[in-house]
Design a protein that fits this description.
The complex is a heterotrimer of chains A (121), B (567) and C (210). Chain A has 121 residues and is an all-alpha fold. Chain A is built from 3 helices and no strands. The termini of chain A are far apart. Chain B has helices at residues 34-38, 43-71, 82-118, 126-149, 162-166, 171-198, 211-243, 256-290, 297-310, 326-354, 363-386, 388-394, 398-428, 434-460, 475-505. The radius of gyration of chain B is 23 Å and the shape is globular. In chain B, helix 3 (82-118) packs antiparallel against helix 7 and helix 8 (256-290) packs antiparallel against helix 11 (363-386). Chain B has one domain: Cytochrome c oxidase-like, subunit I domain (Cytochrome C Oxidase, Chain A). Helices cover 76% and strands 0% of the residues of chain C. With 210 residues, chain C is mostly helical. Chain C has helices spanning 15-50, 52-59, 64-89, 93-123, 139-172, 182-205. Chain C has one domain: Up-down Bundle (Four Helix Bundle (Hemerythrin (Met), subunit A)), CATH 1.20.120. Classes of the chains: A mainly alpha (121), B mainly alpha (567), C mainly alpha (210). Chains in contact: A-B, A-C, B-C. At the A-C interface, helix 1, helix 2 and helix 3 of A face helix 1, helix 3, helix 4 and helix 6 of C.
Chain lengths: 121, 567, 210
């Protein structure tokens, strides 16, 4: 096969989408960075993580090409996230519900509610 | 009967010796040098590499526990220091779990049979397969060297803060060895899943697959998803121990229970890594020696999948008294009861397969029947400890030890032996001595029960696990258990003798000595390097055990008539 | 296409099927890596929810400049890898190799920044232990996760660089044909390395900034 780049329409097929997605990702990254310095208080982290999640979705769908992949590949990717959610949910079922007082009445160290987020449960 | 070879059904009228392999044409003769074995990418040879390695590790782990059972016949120590005692039970657990049970059936029978059963020439990534063996054998050898020379006394569970801050010994080396061996598991899992999806022969639809293939597929799911969490847990222990990075250090806010969450997130699915392949083997052996199709094939498949999925959601039942929240206790207990249901369905279905079958008691069948009974006891006692109040009494006692040995030894090792005997003729091209094999099977069954039934009792009346010295009242139980262990050991050593003998003097095996269904029996014993001279086309259901000459029902499902041998 | 056969491996009967198989295989590996890093994120999440104030104090000490530069470097390298894969599918050998080389350059830049950053962190004494400069003690948990997360990520990235380098050299020397499924597999791995950094970035660099 020749090493030529081919006609422009063929070349644009390989440049356009990655560059477009790259622009979006960079914008989102800068937005996240900016948001971190604004006084959003408790909303900062959820916002940053949400932006990161959107970036990951864009990366996975368009740069890792999940959108053009077989159903099997998409299922495998989804399974990874699903299993991760099992691990998080069930572990949090421990930490979110740890008693905030020891049986003798003293405050317990491993209590999510005590530490500045207000009473969670 | 049409003239077309219907894969999975022994052709009527042909003597069993048809298709008998001449060893000159088999995979065993394709290269005689050690190097040809060590650089092979043939899944059948890799299976044998695994088999040799796991056998060696099995006996090392077995010697460790033999020493312990000997030590425990007296309440206050016979010839071991307490330090040595702790190191020996840790060695036993680490080797048996990671270097024997986890790779056992998948590495040996999975590797050998998966391509054959689906009608493929090899696994999807043969070089990755060889890499998986190298990762395993070097990591395991490294870890065992560390365990034997310096020793680790944390138990196979590596709980913090003991493992990170207080244990002397080679914790980092042992953890590193286990860490690397985990990648062998992941590689095997990736290979098997890709193979099952991409390399099935024409006509081999998902619901025509033997249950052993389904078992390999589901166990691969578990290996890929669970093992990395173990890897990270061990890495964090190493980071804390080697670099002083506080992850689980309570003085700086760390939570030792977090380690237990991360560790058991893998280690509970690990027990399903050990049992799912065993269930797959039993599902192959029982229909063959009952001459009857498996009862409830579809539910057997769904049960395997359900176990593999729900098995990831129950790990907290190892931590009921560790200090996790009451909500977590409730959730994990509930889910642990749920996960018993698909296993029970499988036991019902094996039993229903036997019902009105034409049962014969060859060695594989004895082991498989033993599996069904012993796994049931193990599973029922699992329900005991899945209940939080009962677990508060039974946890960290010999009751738990007996429970998991009924599953892992009474279950998995029995199934491993069943499969070893069932497929020995196919792998080696030789028949083993049936009388000796039956004797060994019965010996292990009796020895196993003599070893572990007393442990239920002594655990229930209060004997803690991992204790070197114990109160005198437990001594009779320990003695019973140790005598049983001696019998069990005899049962495990015998196969070395008669299998070894068969390799040299055994009668040459025909292609299908058991008249079993399945594509692996449609090629010679031992198979040629490329598995099949011609890739078969599949158009029959699995486990089509019915009388030759009898036309199948209009819907294509085999009848349930009990059958005798065709030839 | 005689050189296509150089890419075909046993037991695959045709290259298209092999390519699909490699895709399935590499994604299964990615899933295992998701669980691997996910464990770290879970540990971080648990401790963050237990000690938010300590994490705020500790997080303010990370070098957000290096972290952001590294994020941009990796995002660009992902774009380059995607172009490499698409170019290889169009059998544009030169562009493929150039993009692989660009990826290596950007990845090496990442490691350089990381090295400079580690030097600064060590100079500030941010190694958990007896001489840790911050209070309360739970700030050391944050920094323990910092060191573990970033070094495990860096090891993955360095490994990826080696693999991309080997791939580029094999393509350059015509040992592997441009149709090899390996390009797609390597690219998927590389994108995963980028994914991990996208998640690490807010966890380690955007904490306690406001």
């Amino acid at each position: 096969m020749s090493d030529s780049n081919g006609p422009p329409s063929r070349a644009s097929r390989i440049w356009l989408r990655p560059i477009a997605v790259w622009c979006l990702l960079v914008l989102l990254a800068l937005a996240s960075l900016d948001a971190a310095y604004r006084p959003f208080h408790e909303l900062t982290t959820p916002l940053n993580l949400a932006i990161a999640a959107v970036m990951v979705v864009l990366l996975w769908l368009y740069l890792m090409d999940l959108i053009g992949s077989d159903a099997l590949v998409r299922l495998i990717a989804a399974a990874g996230l699903l299993w991760l959610s099992f691990m998080f949910a069930l572990t949090l079922s421990d930490y979110l519900f740890r008693p905030c007082e020891t049986p003798s009445g003293r405050p317990s160290a491993f209590c999510v509610a005590h530490n500045g987020y207000g009473r969670v449960f | 009967m049409t003239d077309v070879a219907i894969a999975g059904v022994p052709r009527p009228g042909l003597p069993p010796s048809a298709g008998e392999g001449r060893e000159g044409a088999s995979y065993l003769s394709a290269g005689h040098t050690l190097l040809s074995w060590l650089t092979t990418t043939d899944h059948k040879r890799i299976a044998i590499l695994y088999a040799v390695s796991i056998t060696i590790f099995f006996f090392i782990g077995g010697i460790a526990i033999a020493l312990l059972r000997l030590e425990l016949v007296v309440p206050h120590g016979l010839f071991l220091t307490s330090e040595a005692y702790n190191r020996l039970f840790s060695l036993h657990g680490i080797i048996m779990v990671w270097f024997f049970l986890v790779p056992s059936i998948p590495g040996t029978m999975g590797n050998f049979l998966l391509p054959l059963m689906i009608g493929a020439r090899d696994v999807a990534f043969p070089r990755l397969n060889l890499l998986s063996w190298y990762l395993y054998v070097f990591a395991a050898a490294f870890a065992v060297y560390a365990l034997v020379s310096g020793g680790v006394d944390t138990g196979w569970t590596f709980y913090t803060p003991f493992s990170t801050n207080y244990a002397t010994g080679y914790v980092i080396a042992a953890a590193a060895g286990v860490f690397v061996s985990g990648f062998s598991s992941i590689a095997t899992g990736v290979n098997f899943i890709a193979t099952a999806h991409m390399l099935r022969a024409p006509g081999m639809t998902w619901f025509r697959l033997p249950l052993f293939v389904w078992a390999m597929y589901t166990v691969s799911m578990v290996m890929v998803l669970a093992t990395p969490v173990l890897a990270m847990s061990l890495l964090l222990i190493i980071a804390e121990r080697a670099f002083g990075l506080p992850i689980f250090d309570s003085a700086r806010g760390g939570d030792p229970i977090l380690f237990q969450h991360l560790f058991w997130f893998y280690s509970h699915p690990a027990v399903y890594i050990m049992i799912l392949p065993a269930m797959g083997v039993v599902s192959e052996v029982i229909p063959c020696f009952a001459r009857k199709t498996i009862f409830g094939y579809a539910f057997m498949v769904y049960a395997l999948i359900t176990i593999a999925v729900i098995g990831f959601m129950v790990w907290g039942h190892h931590m009921f008294v560790a200090g996790q929240s009451p909500v977590a206790n409730l959730v994990f207990s509930f889910l642990s009861f749920i996960v018993a249901v698909p296993s029970a369905i499988k036991v019902f279905n094996w039993t229903a397969t036997l019902h009105r079958g034409s049962i014969t008691f060859e060695a594989p069948m004895i082991y498989a029947l033993g599996f069904v009974g012993l796994f049931t006891i193990g599973g029922l006692t699992g329900l005991f400890v899945a209940s939080v109040p009962i677990d508060i009494h039974a946890t960290d006692t010999y009751f738990v030890i007996a429970h998991f040995h009924f599953i892992m030894v009474g279950g998995t090792v029995s199934a491993y032996m069943a499969g070893l005997h069932f497929w020995w003729p196919k792998v080696t091209g030789r028949m083993y001595s049936e009388p000796w094999a039956r004797f060994a099977a019965i010996t292990t069954f009796l020895g196993f029960n003599a070893t572990f039934l007393p442990q239920f009792v002594m655990g229930w009346i209060g004997m803690p696990r991992r204790y070197h010295y114990y109160p005198d009242i437990f001594q009779p139980w320990h003695v019973m258990s140790s005598v049983g262990a001696l019998i069990l050991a005899v049962g495990y050593i015998l196969p070395l003798v008669y299998f070894g003998w068969s390799l040299i003097f055994g009668r040459r095996a025909p292609a299908n000595p058991w008249n079993a269904t399945g594509l692996e029996w449609q090629t010679s014993s031992p198979p040629p390097k490329e598995n099949f001279h011609r890739i078969p086309h599949v158009d029959a259901e699995p486990y089509a055990y019915y009388e030759s000459g009898q036309t199948s029902p209009a819907d294509g499902r085999p009848s349930f008539q009990p059958q005798g041998r065709t030839a | 296409m005689s050189d296509v056969n150089a890419a075909l491996r046993e037991p695959w009967s045709d290259l298209r099927r092999q390519r699909e198989g490699v895709t399935v295989g590499i994604w299964l590996f990615i899933v295992s890596e998701v669980l691997f890093f996910g464990t770290l994120f879970l540990g971080y999440g648990v401790y963050r929810s237990l000690y938010p104030e300590a994490f705020r104090i500790a997080g303010a000490q990370t070098e957000v400049f290096y972290g952001s530069v590294n994020l941009l470097l990796l995002l660009t390298s992902s774009a380059a890898m995607t172009i490499a894969v698409d170019a290889s599918r169009q059998e544009m050998r030169r562009i493929t190799i150039i993009c692989l080389a660009l990826t290596i350059l950007l990845g090496a830049g990442f490691l350089l920044c990381k090295g400079l950053e580690y030097r600064d962190d060590i100079a500030k004494g941010l190694l958990p232990g007896a001489y840790f400069p911050l209070r309360p003690p739970q700030t050391q948990l944050f920094w323990a996760f910092y060191w573990v997360m970033t070094s495990v990520h860096a090891i993955h990235l360095a490994t990826g660089l080696v693999v991309v380098g080997v791939l580029a050299s094999l393509l350059w020397r015509h040992t592997l044909p441009i149709q090899t499924p390996a390009i797609q597999g390597v690219a998927t791995y590389w994108h995963f390395v980028d994914t991990v950094w996208i998640i690490i970035f807010p966890l380690l660099y955007l904490v306690g900034r406001s």
